[in-house]
Amino acid sequence: MLAVIAGLAVVWDGRMPSMSQPEITAPGDAALSAVSGARILFAHQSVGFNILQGMKDVYASAGAAAPTIVETRETLADDAQIAHVHIGVNGDPLGKIADFTALMDGPLGASVDVALLKFCYDDITAGSDEEAVFDAYARAMADLERAHPDVTFLYTTVPLTTDRGLRASIKALLGRPDRAGPLDNAVRARYNQLVRDRYAGTGRLFDIAAVETTVDGTPTTRTLEAQTYQVLNRAYAADNGHLNEIGARAAAGALIEVVAANVR
Questions:
Q1: Which domain holds residue 145?
Q2: How far apart are the C-alpha atoms of 242 and 232, rounded to whole Å?
Q3: Which has the closest alpha carbon to 61: 20, 35, 21, 25?
Q4: Which of 23, 34, 66, 153 falls between 20 and 30 A from 260, CA-CA?
Q5: Of the candidates 6, 17, 14, 13, which has an alpha carbon nearest to the alpha carbon of residue 170?
Q6: Is 256 among the domain residues?
């Protein structure tokens, strides 16, 4: 056991994520205004709440009124700009796709201009078939785009987790994994590359994984069995998978820019 624990440093490549204070570029006034004028469906789970709080902070820092955010599965009210929905159940990405499809085919889908489904890190783990999940996601998005030509659909990568600490690594070795280990992030990396290969060229990709791993222009990468993968940088992390204030603002800024670039 001691030999295995000592070997954990090899799994981590002997490096921990950067703890430098990141330089975050805030969206400009034009982007903030464009997002405030759009009606958006944001389907998510817990990291999505971090992003929504980050969005409020971005607007507050700019001295601008933030979009009105409401939790609803019904028609978006006239005085609201963002409908956020606690989508599906974590660990069931296919169920989330089905829930998102039902939302878009209902009254809420008829009242929005922009829509996106963001998976949770719990949806893609070491036990996932990332190609099957991506194929289901891509088919559903294509079907929705045909069914709702007046809606702009954004695509997303799946969020990441940090490196495990020693205690969590020992628990994993004892059969109590937390879905936040090297194997989990390696599968997320493969899934995210499928997303980027298909959608990066559309200009409609919210690459939250790239935001989470990149501090001052440098990705936080690891290597496992010759595969390079990314982890959530601890400078952005509130815990092993959620975003602190800085990370939330960085992710919100990226989402604002993508939405602003695609408002019709």
A1: 2-6+26-262
A2: 9
A3: 25
A4: 23
A5: 6
A6: yes
